[in-house]
Every structure is written in C-alpha cells, then in structure tokens.
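Students often ask why we bother predicting the structure of a whole assembly rather than each chain alone. The short answer is interfaces. A chain on its own may look different once its partners are present, and contacts between molecules only exist in the joint model. In this exercise we take two input lines together and write out one structure for the complete complex. Read the inputs first and try to guess which parts will touch.
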Amino acid sequence: MIRLRHRLPKGGFVLDVDVEVPDTGITGVFGESGSGKTTLLRCIAGLERHDGLPVHERNVGYVFQDPGLFPHLTVRGNIEYGARRATTRRVESAPVIEMLGLGDLLDRRPDTLSGGEAQRVAIAAALLRSPDLVLMDEPLASLDRRRKDDLLPYFDRLHDELSVPVIYVSHDIEEISRLCDHLVVLEDGAVAASGGLGDVLSRVDVPVLSGRNAGVVLWASPVDQEDGLTKFEIGDGDIWAPGEFGAGSGPLRLRIAASDVSIARDRPTATTILNVLRATIEEVHAVDAATALVRLGIGNQELLARVTNRSVRRLDLRPGERVFAQVKSVTVRH
Amino acid sequence: MNLFGPLWLSAQLALVTTIILVIVGAPVAWWLARTSSRVKPAIQAVVAMPIVLPPTVLGFYLLILLGPSGAVGSWWVQMTGSALTFSFTGLVIASCIYSLPFAVQPMQNAFESLPKKYLERAWTLGASRLDAFFSIAVPLSLRGFVSGIVLSFAHTLGEFGVVLMVGGNIPGETRVVSIAIYDHVETLNYGAAHRMSLVLVAFAFVVLAAMFVINRRWSER
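Now the answer. The structure tokens for the assembled complex follow.
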C-alpha cells in the first residue's frame, strides 16, 4: 500500500488527506472541480510546496491535463528527456513506444501533433522516467469526445500491461469506471470515500456519487451472442448488452447508471426492457426531497437504482425484500 | 591603423562586455522573472538606472569608485599593482554596468513569457532546477538571449560619456572608436571622422536589421 498524507491550507481551502491506496493498478481520484484533486497530485509530486524533497528526486511521473511537450524538442527528444535523467532505467523505450503507437511520430515536432497524440507522447515520457508512481491529472479532459475515444484504448492497454501504480484524477465517472481498480472520492479537500472501485461506487451515502454520477460497475463474463447483443452471466440471471464480445475473454466491466435501473414488485412480462434480474433490497437512502438511491444485491454483486421517494412509499420498499430490477442500459468496458 | 585601431579596441571591449553580461545577466534576469520578493522593484530599478542616468553621472561615480583611492580601485591596486581607471579592464567594468539593462531586460522578458508548465514538467521528468534552466528555459528563451547579446554589444560599441570619464583617451588601451571620432571632429579632421562614423552606422543598421529578421522568423514559427 502507498500512504498519501498531505495537508495544505490554500486561501480559504484546506486540503487534508490521509489515505492508503494499493501499490498496483490504477487508483482513481474522483471529485467535483474545486475538491482538491489536482492540489493532491501536486502535493504528491512536490510541486505545491518547496520545503520537502525536491520534485526531481521524488521519482514520480506526472501527466498533466495540458500535455505541455517541450516545443524545441522532437517527439523522440521529448520521450527521451525523462529516460536520460532516470536514476534506474527499468522501463524500456521500445515497448512503450509500441504500446502508445508512437513509432511513426518520433521525428515530428510537438506543434504538428493532435491533442491526443501529444498526450500519448507525454504519457510515454512520464513512463520512461521509470517512476515509482505515475500521476495523471485529467489527461483526457482537454480532448474532444472523438479524440477521447481514440485515446481510451491506450489507457486500457496501460491498465493491462503496466506494473507501475497509477493515480488517475478525473471528474468523469465514466472514465473512472472504465479504467480504475480502486477509488478515492474527494469532497472539499477531504476524503469522502476510499476503497475498491465496486465497493465505493455502490455506496449510497457519498453525496458526489448520489447525483447524476450514481451507478455501479459489475464484473461479468460473456457467455453467448445473439442479434448483435452479448449475454453476460451475473448472479442468478443474465444481462444482455449491445455489442459483440467474445466468450472466454474473462470477466468484463459493465457500467450501469442508477438512473437506468428501476424496481418492480412482480416480474414484468410485457416490457421492452430485456434485463430483468432478481434482486434483494439492501439499503434505501433518501438523496433529497424527491429521490432515493436503492442498493440491490444480485448474486454477490450490487446494483444501484434511482427511484422517487414517492415510489418507495407506494411499493413500501424495505431492506431485505425480494424485488425485480429492470436494467434499461448497460455499457460494456473493454 | 589610425582607423582600424580604435574600431578593433571597441570591438574587443564590446565582445568581452557582452560575454560577461550574458553570464552575469542571465541569473539576474532569471531571478527577476521568477521572484515575488519585495525587493524586486528596487533591484529592477538599480538594473534599469543606466538607461536614464546621464553617462557623465555614471562615469563620475565609477571614476571615484574605480580610482586608486576608491573602494574597488584601491583593492585592485593592491592586488595587481596597476590602476583600474584609464585602463582597458576599468573600461570593461564600466561598460558592464552601463550596458547591464540592455542584456538583462530582453532575457527577463523572455523568461517571464516562458510558461511555467514546461519547467514543472521538466522537474517531474527528473531535471534539477539547474538542469531545467539549461535544457528548457535557455533554449526556449533564445530570442531573449539574441536580443540581449545584440543590444549589449551594440550599446557598448556606442558608449561615449562613461568611457571619457573613466578611460580617457589612451591609444590602444582606452581610445575606443567613439572617442576617436570626437577627437577627429575636434581637430577638424572630418575625413577620418566620416570613415569611422560610416562603419558604425553600417554596423548598427546591419546588426539591428538582422535581429529584427531573426525575431520575425521566430514569431512566425
């Protein structure tokens, strides 16, 4: 585990964080703007205060929101900048260049690259420094939707092939759900929740995760394909999701937003919704005057449903009761 | 020789002064560009003063300071046995002070316009402060360096009042081209004055034009 312990008063705002994160995989740091995410990363890197260990001795790779490539160096020069200064060279350049698809860009100048290409170069530079920890500050935020979609598969590869731990800051719950294994939620400079991605996402009592960000990630294996859909086995039911995903590739991530899940007392029959799962109510949490989040157990995984308090009263929904969850939309991640 | 000697001496003086000013001025410019210290305005004012002070004022105080009974001058006599005033070395010191703002200000402007993100990235990639200065800040501020070099060289070449006060008019030692021209005019030797002056006019034009061309290329890139 890596212990992150930082306290920094900054004007009226105080960052006060003391949290442990795993030393493998990608840890997401999620929060709204102003919650202290970037300040936390800058503290870890030593950029915020200059009284501790100097930045260059900390051996952390930092990928900024703005790639900030050095304009006087070629792509190759940019990539090698960190490698040449690495105290121990554990990361080879050839596989990183291959993984990030930079082979054809090496002799280009930074001002001729697209935003996504520049960010890939910045990531390669940070990795080739052979860091003990990689910090990524909203690396996709400055890109438009299409460039983001182009770049995301590279992050999937990073996730699968990289042995160095990554702390990934984002305010986009979709990105976090897709990439991260562990999640730290920041609110007003303090840790509001921390733990495995699935566990944190299925909590109903974290304000920033109870609004439009509410939703869970399930892990399920594809077992069948039909009509352009793939069937996933989950608990004692199935989930059909659009897209064709090969069987035998192991469990995949299914992102299900709370607003796409509704609850029925009896199994609905004549409905366009394909996915109806047996579930047990675990917790009912009123979010505001109108709406509530309901945590549902299906097998050994959990779903969140956003319903109205009015429906909770009308159907008399209580923990422990058996109901049916109707899932309207599922996104399959990599 | 009469034409070439003072020109050559001026060129030597300008070259030595410029080299010293880049080495000394770059750290000063770097500090001024990045500090938020309360003494910054005072330091800036001191650096800029030679622009507004009459050369005679500057020369007068330098003459006192560098003279055999002055603070710096007496120490120099003790160390080397010769005086600083009316010597080439004395001229170099005077020129460095006189031309300091012309070297520092362009470099400072270039450093100030350098986005902080480049330095922060360099540090996180393992570069120390000094390393990042040479590998990132200097190459990205070349424009400021070129301006600083050209301006301090040209300005040193053209100085008159300070040289007259501190250096006098010793052939081969302190008789720089501006002094020589003055002499020729005084003695109504207009031909010689013309030849030297035209060399300086041509030089000033070529160097400044070249600098502006380089600047335009850079900003187009």
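Check your guess against this: The interface with chain A takes residues 115, 117-118, 120-129, 131, 135-136, 139-140 of chain B (CB under 8 Å).
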